[in-house]
Amino acid sequence: MKPINDHLKENLDLLFVGFNPSIRSSETGHHFANPNNRFWKILHEAGLTPRKFVTTEDYKLLDLGYGMTNIVARPTKAADEITKEEYEAGRTELLRKINLFKPKIVCFVGKGVYQQYSKKRTILWGKQEESVVPGVIDFVAPSSSGLVRMKLEEIIEIYAELPKLLSQSRDELE
């Protein structure tokens, strides 16, 4: 299985960080490609995209100022297959990417992703009080996996905070 390409550029408004690619993502070369993953639906319904994108359009998020990466590059069937060493190496690499590309907001797609990144155990949904990288807003959202037991409406409600944060950060820059 091969890793998939990040979609990154400098000064992104928003960077999405997942656990790692699924087997389906590895096969297709696109993020959130598993048909049971609700990422694209959530983004649209939360007001982050003008329409529901399909997985093969993942690179088009760059046109909206959004990027994509994962904390671990190796594809697996499930996140519980990721080793402690892979998370540690992935955390170091993710810190490097965030410091290099300087996104305004980093949205961690799953509490577990943020726990591995921040080394914090107790985490609330949404904007975090204190960010790991100064000057970057850390935002924690539920995983978009179909395995998540939260109601889709509740997940969308959390992601819907992102357009508000983006608007605030743009206002602060003007």
TrEMBL record:
It comes from Cytobacillus depressus. Its EC number is 3.2.2.28. GO terms for biological process: base-excision repair, AP site formation. It holds the Pfam family UDG. It is an enzyme of class 3 (hydrolase). Residues 8-157 form the Uracil-DNA glycosylase-like domain. NCBIfam families: PRK10201.1. InterPro entries: MUG/TDG (IPR015637), Uracil-DNA_glycosylase-like (IPR005122), Uracil-DNA_glycosylase-like_sf (IPR036895). Keywords: DNA damage, DNA repair, Glycosidase, Hydrolase. This is G/U mismatch-specific DNA glycosylase. GO terms for molecular function: pyrimidine-specific mismatch base pair DNA N-glycosylase activity; uracil DNA N-glycosylase activity.
